[in-house]
Structure formats: C-alpha cells, structure tokens
Amino acid sequence: MDEKSDLMEKIISLCKRRGFIYPGSEIYGGLAGTYDYGPLGVALKNNIKNSWWKKFVDNREDMYGIDAAILMNAKVWQTTGHVDNFSDPMVDCKECKKRFRPDQLDNKKSCPECGGAFGIQRNFNMMFATQIGAVEDSSATVYLRPETAQGMFVNFKNVVDSLHPKLPFGLAQIGKAFRNEITPRDFIFRMREFEQMEIEYFVNQNDWQKYFDYWKDEILEWMDSLGIDMNSVHELEVEEADRAHYSSRTVDFEFDFPFGRKELYGLAYRTDFDLQSHTGASLNDLSYLDETTGERFVPHVIEPSFGLERSVLALLASAYKEDGVDGEIRQYLAFKPAIAPVICAVSPLLKNKPELQSRAREVYGMLKQEFGRVMYDDNGNIGKRYRRQDEIGTPFCIVVDFDSLENQTVTVRDRDTQKQELIKIDELVNYLKSKLV
C-alpha cells in the first residue's frame, strides 16, 4: 500500500471509529454510494455550512437565501436539457456484468474486476426518476433534482417581485442533490446522494468578467478560512470542449486528495442560458428592469458551486496529522477551533473524587451553555482522554484538579502543541472566544 492509499485508509478508519462517517445501511450489507454521518460528522458538516452561510449570505447585503423543493415539475429538467443530455458513458462487462465508466478506466479493453471483455459503450442518464401521485404513467414522472441551481432560477421572478433587489444580487441555497452515479467511489468524494452549497449571482452582461474574478477570490478566501490546505489547491481553466453546455467560462478548483488531484469546487459563467430557457418554456418573463436606467434585460449569471461532502473530505485530508514520542504514534485532526466539531472537552483529574466531578460539571455546564459544542469526558485516565480528543480534533482539553477547588483555576491543554496553561475559571469563556476567530 502506497503512502497516499494508506492515508485514505487511516482517514476512513478514524471516521468510522470516532463517529464521523458510517457506511450507509451497514447492518444490511451497505448501499453503494451512500454514507451516514454520525454525531461528530453532523457537527462538522453544520460548522462548514454555517461558515459558508455566514460569509456568503449573512455578512452580505446583496445575497438572498432560498430553500427550493427537491421535487420539481419535470418540465424544468426537460427545458434545461437534463432529461435528454444529463448522462455519462457506460460499459458493461460481458462476464461479471458489472458496469463502469470508460473515462475512469486505465485499461479500457478489459474489466478491472474479472478481465472480461466490455460490451458496446452507451450513455446512462444519471437522474433518479420516480412517480408522483397514485397513477403510474409518463405524466406522473418526476425526478430527484440532480443540482440545486434550477430551484434558484425558477424562483428568480418570485424574489425580484417580493424584495425588489438591486443588480447585482445573488440567490444562495444549501440542499440535497441526487445523481445515479455508475461507479460511486473514493469514500464520500463521488456519491449518489450529496449536498451542494450554491450561489447564482445575477449581473449585467457587461460586468460578468469583473464579477467572475471577484468570486474567484471570494472562493479562495473562504477555503483558506475553513482550514483547507491551500498548498494542495490548484486552479484549472476548463477548456471549451470540457465545459458544460451552458458555460462560457469555467474555473475548477482542484484539490490534492489522497487518491489524486480532483475537482473540489467550481466557478462557472452560465451567461443568460437558464433564465432565457425558462422564459421560453414557461412563457413567463424572467427579465429584470433597471429602475435607474429604465433598461429591461435578462441578467447573466456567475455560479460559485461548492460540494459539502467534498469540503468535509478536503478538510479531513488537510487536518489529519501524526506525530509521536518514544515510538508511540499520535493521530490528531488539526481543525481550526471555529470548525472543530467539539471546541473543548472538560474532565475531572480523577473520576472517583466527587468534589472534582462536581466542579468539573459546573465548568462544563457554563461552557456548554455558552458554546454548545462542548464535551464532558471522564472515561479512562487523562492520557487516554487526551488521545481520544486529539483524534476527533478537539482543540482544547480542560482539566479540573484540586487547585481548581482552591485557586479557581483549570489546566487548559492545547491539542497541537500539547502545552498546558492555567486559566482562571471566570476567564475561560473569553479565553475560548479569543480562539474562535
């Protein structure tokens, strides 16, 4: 096993062992392309989403959040070309009958599982179709959305009519999307059910280049603030032949994952393709009136697109560290305190001393009320607690000892440096707040 494969295995093992990510439906043998998030994984995802929403929605005057339905009228997907064109190439092995994407095969002539020959290549539509209502006919067919973007485009007129935003402005959404991937792979990188964090930013056509460059910088700034290793991030200008049909320019932000350099986020200039398409198909006017100039036009769109699961994986790969003393290896996740699932863990020095337990519970209750993401840990000795908290990325361990009873101080141990310092109990909240920037 090479070093990168070994790193991926270590991350997957840690995620399962410590309650970040579990295989979907595991007790029934699993379901390919699905994963369940445990308590710490949910906390990490929520912290990422909250960070994204704060930067791109709450801290701005030109952004409006929406939450569109997963199920949409099938005409939406017919209009955008998804029904006819949202497909990947697929080949079947004639021997073992397994399916593969030929563009992901090193050897395109024989099956990587059994060595058998492939059948004829064909296209496979990746949208999940289902029936709505009680009658099963073609008129009742709907699709699980393969992207969140169209929910924003079809609500463009609603937002304009309701809030009268000034151009440029954006719509932002975090939500589930579904793609029937032929070969889900690489842990949570490519899945059949995933979450997107997307923005559709509406601009005057003459300004698209300026705002494209602006959003490129915004994406990089947020990645850095999240704690993603920026030395592993690369910008790729996507060639015309490889761009989506709606895009006149696309930049992919790739990341050096343990399994190779792959797309993490994307930035696309979608022109006015979507609004014009929906105008023609729905017969609704999706133009915008500039009240200053009196000009009416269909805005163009800049789309920053973020995958939540890929954010989690890039963050895990960036944060995973190992060090050791005297041959003992310490695994830890060097999350930034603001993103860590648990900000701090509170422990009594000794579990069998009621007075230490009582004071530790008081400190825990105070911090829990203030920060929420606080854990009480009295399982095992202090050394084992430190190692356990290091593995889940807890930045600070707070130990209540006998000095805490007399001097009102606690020992705060830093995850990364392993250094300890005494902090007054009544200064703990401000101390931790200073670390959450």
UniProtKB/TrEMBL annotation:
It is found in: Cytoplasm. It catalyses: tRNA(Gly) + glycine + ATP = glycyl-tRNA(Gly) + AMP + diphosphate. It is an enzyme of class 6 (ligase). Its EC number is 6.1.1.14. Substrate binds at R101, E147, F194, E195, Q196, M197, E198, E303, P304, S305, F306, G307. InterPro entries: aa-tRNA-synt_IIb (IPR002314), aa-tRNA-synth_II (IPR006195), aa-tRNA-synth_II/BPL/LPL (IPR045864), Anticodon-bd (IPR004154), Anticodon-bd_dom_sf (IPR036621), Gly-tRNA_synthase/POLG2 (IPR027031), Gly_tRNA_ligase_bac (IPR022961), GlyRS-like_core (IPR033731). It comes from the Bacteria. Gene3D superfamilies: Anticodon-binding domain, Bira Bifunctional Protein, Domain 2. One of its GO terms (biological process) is diadenosine tetraphosphate biosynthetic process. GO terms for cellular component: cytoplasm; extracellular exosome; microvesicle. SUPFAM superfamilies: Class II aaRS ABD-related, Class II aaRS and biotin synthetases. The keyword Ligase applies. Keywords: Aminoacyl-tRNA synthetase, ATP-binding, Cytoplasm, Ligase, Nucleotide-binding, Protein biosynthesis. Its main location: cytoplasm. Residues 6-337 form the Aminoacyl-transfer RNA synthetases class-II family profile domain. It holds the Pfam family tRNA-synt_2b. Belongs to the class-II aminoacyl-tRNA synthetase family. This is Glycine--tRNA ligase. It comes from Candidatus Nomurabacteria bacterium RIFCSPHIGHO2_02_FULL_38_15. The gene is glyQS.
